[in-house]
Amino acid sequence: MQSDLTSVENALARNRESIMALPNVVGSGLSLCNGAPCIKILIRQHDAEIEQRVRSIVGQTPFRVEKVGPIEALPAE
């Protein structure tokens, strides 16, 4: 599992900028998909083409897309 985690971490590090540049993407990070490491992509609203776009960036690295709506930073206290 460690090599799988390292592989996913490396894929995210290489591709985070391209992933975050996609329309409607508001976040990305490491997660588990069916108990195995994967990249989680957070999107603002449904996008029928997002999975195809992400696949073209990350290749065979497992990923999951989750609709979370808009994300806003809280003001500093």
Give the averaged pLDDT, no decimals: 93
Radius of gyration from CA coordinates: 13 Å
Distance between the termini: 40 Å
Largest sheet: spatial strand order: 1-2-3
Short description:
By secondary structure, the protein is an alpha+beta fold. It has helices at 2-20, 50-58, and strands spanning 25-33, 36-43, 63-67. It has a single domain, classed as GMP Synthetase, Chain A, domain 3 (2-Layer Sandwich).
Question: Describe it for me?
Answer:
With about 80 residues, the protein is an alpha+beta fold. The protein has a single domain, classed as GMP Synthetase, Chain A, domain 3, CATH 3.30.300. The protein is built from two helices and three strands. Strand 2, helix 2 (about 50-60) and strand 3 (about 65) form a beta-alpha-beta unit. The longest helix is centred in the first third of the chain and has 19 residues, at about 1-20. The radius of gyration is 13 Å and the shape is globular.
Question: Can you give keywords for this protein?
Answer:
2 helices; 29% strand; alpha+beta; 77 residues; GMP Synthetase, Chain A, domain 3; single chain
Helix and strand layout, with pairings?
Blueprint: H1 2-20, E1 25-33, E2 36-43, H2 50-58, E3 63-67
Parallel strand pairs: 2-3
Antiparallel strand pairs: 1-2
